[in-house]
Specification:
five-stranded parallel beta sheet, binds flavin-adenine dinucleotide, 566 residues, Methane Monooxygenase Hydroxylase, Chain G, domain 1, single chain, Flavocytochrome C3, Chain A, domain 1
């Protein structure tokens, strides 16, 4: 098999991957960025509402970085590592200024300063935005910046199969060019997993089709742990029935949620923060309204923007307006938008420290949604994720550069292991009969939605685990219809399913294990938060079919857990 050698490989061309690659490259190292789509098509480009930042000269005069950390920690239901939240807040203004200097044109106030809007759980408004297409603007600016660096090579439309390790040390990754289906061993001393989220595990998700959790599963198969894998975020306002995101920016700009009686029902659940309570609370409130018969036929509630006025809606919330019109036939200037919750973000991720380094495997790093640092704890606040990709993408890139300074020795040749990775991929898809992979995929997505979703309990989680195990077994004899050796997308989709099945079992087992309710993990059989027993991170490994769970303490600096009321 062909071999290519780099100092570091970044898997993922979204915001986190590009920022990490930038830092490694400007420190003089040779980097490859491998991405299964062209970088600017990464899910980062779909981010709508904005990026949170405390900017001294342009924030509310009463605000400060401590308030921002506090909001993040309380929003995450105290499972947040507080040193990480403090770093996120401290670096937020600087990173937004850098992105501005690299060409992101943020919306302005009339006096020329950067505009700001409220997002859920914020004591003071901190979200900076480019209309409701913020991710697109950031990703294009960053891609343009890194494209100018000589020591970064891009491998676009290349699919990473698995990491290669020599005992406890990462030595590279096997990836396949999707067009020629030619596998290559990319040798490197450090690998950054910046592979983004996993929304496709759920029947309803706002995520792109490429978000299949490949990075989590590659890390698990290589022997690294996931941190807090039971914590999955459901966004309250996905467009009914297509599940396209209607950004929290809409509520930030003043939109309100109403039930079939026309009531502003959030008054019942979060009397102070109302529609801008954190996402876990608003999602559960919507489901409760629907279950108790106050939803609209089909199962949704209304998001009412009408009082904002046509001109304002079309300028500030253009994407929401266009999506509602094109995909639900609703003119948001005249009628409420039909919305319901859908999977949106993954708080769990590859277990890394504040520098992005994993402690199971030497040379493994992760950043962005693929990582769990943890800044989001049990529930992420809106607009903190774009910020995390850039702040921790940069921290991780710097840590890799430092790591490379002291790790100069060459690794052994591991030809057998490399060949086995490609053989396993083909073996996985070679059956002629059995079940089509698409059938397993649909079943998996429904099981996760029905039984490992917004509301959870022991019976459903046990049933989910048993069903996922059956699907894992079935997948051993599944087939793909397309046998071609050029750009076989069905083959790659089947490999994505393998990743989804590995991740699903870890999520479901970890959710069964945590016997309390915290943030987005809501157990109807254990409805209270239990700090005495559960104020700790779940650390989950996958050994064959068995999920092994240990724990790590939550790092506290100055905020003691208190009741989470809004
Ligand atoms: C619709 C939507 C709107 C959002 N709006 C906001 C918002 O307004 N504010 C906010 O803060 N957050 C928002 N988020 C969340 C935020 O956009 C993401 O969490 C963040 O952009 C993730 O960035 P990333 O760099 O970690 O991953 P991504 O941008 O998802 O990039 C992942 C990369 O990994 C590559 N990859 C994955 N698997 C493989 C593989 N096997 N081989 C090779 N390459 C691979 C992909 O090609 C891609 O380049 C939103 C999310 C969605 C879905």
């Amino acid at each position: 098999m062909e071999k290519l050698s780099y100092d570091a490989i970044v898997i993922g061309g979204g915001l986190a991957g590009l920022m990490a690659a930038h830092e490694i490259a400007v420190n003089g190292y040779k980097v490859a960025v491998i991405s299964k789509v062209f970088p600017t098509r990464s899910h980062s480009s779909s981010a709508e509402g904005g990026i949170a930042a405390y900017i001294e000269e342009n924030s509310d005069p009463n605000d400060n970085p401590d308030y921002m950390s506090y909001d993040t920690i309380k929003g995450g239901d105290y499972l947040v590592d507080q040193d990480a939240a403090e770093l996120l807040s401290m670096r937020s203004g600087e990173i937004v200024r850098i992105m501005e200097s690299w060409g992101t044109l943020f919306n302005r106030q009339p006096d020329g300063r950067v505009a700001v809007r409220y997002f859920g759980g914020q004591t003071y408004p901190r979200t900076r935005f480019v209309g409701d297409k913020t991710g697109m603007a950031l990703l294009h600016a960053l891609f343009q910046r890194v494209s100018g660096l000589d020591n970064i090579d891009f491998y676009n439309e290349w699919f990473s199969l698995d990491l290669v390790r020599d005992d406890k040390r990462i030595v590279g990754v096997v990836a396949m060019e999707m067009k020629s289906m030619n596998p290559v061993f990319f040798k490197a001393k450090a690998i950054v997993m910046a592979t983004g989220g996993m929304g496709m595990l759920y029947a309803h998700s706002t995520n792109a089709y490429i978000n299949t959790g490949d990075g989590y599963s590659m890390a698990l198969r290589a022997g690294a742990a996931l941190k807090d894998p039971e914590f999955v975020q459901f966004h309250p306002t996905a467009l009914y029935p297509s599940d396209i995101l209607i950004s929290e920016a809409a509520r930030g700009e003043g939109a309100i949620l109403i039930n079939n009686k026309g009531e502003r029902f959030m008054q019942r659940y979060a009397p102070k923060k109302l529609d801008l309570a954190p996402r876990d609370i608003v999602s559960r409130s919507i489901i409760t309204e629907i279950r108790e018969g106050r939803g609209f036929p089909g199962g949704y509630v209304g998001l009412d923007l009408r009082h904002l006025g046509e001109e304002y809606i079309k300028e500030r919330l253009a994407l929401a307006y266009e999506a509602a019109l094109s995909f639900s036939g609703v003119d948001a200037t005249k009628e409420p938008i039909p919305v319901r919750p859908a999977q949106h973000y993954y708080m769990g991720g590859i277990d890394v420290d504040i520098t992005g380094m994993n402690s199971d495997l030497i040379g493994l790093f992760a950043a962005g949604e693929a990582a769990c640092v943890s800044v989001h704890g049990a529930n992420r606040l809106g607009s903190n994720s774009l910020l995390e990709t850039l702040v921790f993408g940069r921290e991780t890139g710097r840590a890799v550069a430092k790591f490379l300074e002291s790790h100069t020795e060459d690794s052994n040749s591991l030809d057998n292991e490399v060949d086995k990775i490609v053989d396993d991929a083909y073996k996985y898809t070679k059956s002629e009969s059995g079940v089509h992979f698409g059938e397993i995929l649909n079943k998996l997505r429904n099981v996760m939605w029905d039984e490992v979703g917004i509301y959870r309990d022991e019976d459903h989680l046990k049933d989910a685990i048993s069903q996922i195990n059956q699907l894992r077994e079935m997948s051993k004899t599944m087939y793909v219809t397309d046998k071609s050796k050029t750009y076989n997308t069905e083959f790659f989709n089947a490999l994505e399913l393998r990743n989804m099945l590995d991740l699903a079992i870890v999520i479901a087992q970890s959710a069964l294990n945590r016997k309390e309710s915290r943030g987005a993990h809501f157990r109807t059989d254990y409805p209270q938060r239990d700090d005495d027993n559960w104020l700790k991170h779940t650390i989950s490994y996958l050994k064959g079919n068995t999920v092994e769970i240990t724990y790590k303490p939550v790092r506290m600096t100055k905020w003691k857990p208190e009741p989470r009321v809004y």
